[in-house]
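pasting for the record
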Amino acid sequence: MRLTFHGTLLGVIMLLLAMMALGPARQLWNEQQRIRSDTQAIAAGNAEATRLTGRIEAMQDPKHVEQLARDQLGYVRPGETSYIIVHPQQPAAPPSPPAAKTTSWLRLTWTGIRYGL
């Protein structure tokens, strides 16, 4: 099979068109990825908003606020007695004796030579 001038020209034109289409195709792909990540971020934000809305509604209930004050702040009603249970702590382990200082044989030799031992 023999290539003609028109066939070669057509091939070169098709190759140039394909190369020109790569940039916009890559940009479209990146935009789709960005849209997916933004959609996930919006979904996470909506879930957080729902959780916080539920927490706000719980704070409107006086019984819930009272329970939080009792648990976190240690509040009691007038006439009630509050007890705090303190668990004894384990005695601290005695400090270990310091490790014996090791001196290299080279230093011992040099000290002996230096001071004439």
